[in-house]
Design a protein that fits this description.
Tet_transcr_reg_TetR-rel_C_sf; single chain; mainly alpha; Tetracycline Repressor, domain 2; TetR family transcriptional regulator; Homeodomain-like_sf; DNA binding
């Protein structure tokens, strides 16, 4: 078979795939684009490169997302949706507030470690002063849900006599995010500066447990942790 004939068949397979599974094609574009944006930023990512690594075409990317900024925003929305979906699947309704909060912190720490592209995209969006997220009602709605989960845990902890009064659920979310985010965003620099592998399994486990303890000590009333 000639090289041109092979290219025609390859293009035909791409068209067939798009026609059979448009949502799968769209998700494939977002997954590849997320990696490119996390690696190269909004300005450095190239639609040609993204198209070459997907089962789609440059024209189809523009069809689904309008332009590169539209694709970038969709990738951000997908990244936030993934973490919020994971939180929603946590089985914490039957746990005490302390144990529920512990499980939420453990999940967040592990999720961020396993989704480094998410952390890098959030860092890039902060470089852009959050201007693209500001356009997204999707992300705002997702994060309202996240705060609602913490608010529910906190209020249960107050009723159970485990948590101290006067705390803001949004600020609790901030502290959890800060501790778990830093573990990924600054791991490389800390490892080199202090000649210790902060990505080693035993170090990650210790850092996770430290993070859980710091959050719980911040929220819990004295003596509530059984000390």
């Amino acid at each position: 078979m000639s090289e041109s004939g092979s290219e025609v068949r390859k293009a035909a397979r791409k068209v067939s795939t798009r026609q059979q599974d448009p949502e799968g094609t769209r998700q494939n574009i977002i997954e590849v684009a997320s990696q490119e944006f996390a690696l190269n930023g909004l300005s450095g990512a190239r639609i040609d490169e993204i198209a070459a690594k997907t089962r789609s075409s440059k024209r189809m990317i523009y069809y689904y997302f309008g332009d590169k900024e539209g694709l970038y925003l969709s990738a951000l929305e997908s990244a936030y949706a993934t973490v919020r979906e994971g939180e929603a699947e946590l089985d914490i309704a039957g746990l005490s507030a302390v144990d529920g909060l512990r499980r939420l912190v453990e999940f967040t720490f592990t999720h961020h470690h396993q989704h480094e592209d998410f952390i890098r995209m959030v860092m890039i969006e902060n470089i852009h002063h959050g201007q693209y997220l500001e356009r997204s009602s999707v992300v705002r709605d997702l994060n309202v849900t996240a705060i609602a989960h913490i608010k529910d845990l906190y209020e249960r902890g107050l009723v159970e006599g485990q948590f101290r009064p006067g705390l803001d659920p949004l600020e609790i979310h901030w502290q959890i995010s800060a501790l778990c985010f830093f573990n990924v965003s600054n791991r490389a620099t800390f490892s080199r500066l202090f000649a210790r592998d902060f990505g080693a399994p035993d170090m990650l486990e210790r850092l996770k447990q430290n993070t859980v303890e710091m959050v719980l000590r911040y929220v819990a009333k004295p003596g509530a942790l059984g000390e």
